[in-house]
Design brief:
Layout (H helix, E strand, L loop, with lengths): L4 H12 L3 H4 L4 H51 L1
Length: 79
């Protein structure tokens, strides 16, 4: 994930625009814990969405492959 530009941009954007509940926290330990929790939440959601996109792409490719196989099967039967 750390080499994926989309993920890095998301985390950088979050860090540059910290929500008020985090940026206004006076205790630095608490602030750091809040940041870690939010990054964990963002990371989990990012991975879920990435997995969903990957599964959709695999299903689409498998569907295309089946269509090609059916077309080739029909061509072979016509010969």
């Amino acid at each position: 994930m750390l080499v994926e530009p989309e993920y890095c941009d998301m985390i950088n954007s979050f860090l540059k625009n910290l929500p008020d509940e985090i940026s206004l926290e006076e205790n630095s330990k608490t602030r750091w814990e809040l940041i870690k929790i939010k990054i964990k939440y963002l990371s989990i959601n990012y991975c879920k969405e990435k997995s969903k996109r990957t599964k959709q792409k695999i299903a689409s490719i498998e569907n295309e492959l089946k269509q090609i196989e059916n077309q080739n099967h029909l061509k072979i039967n016509m010969i």
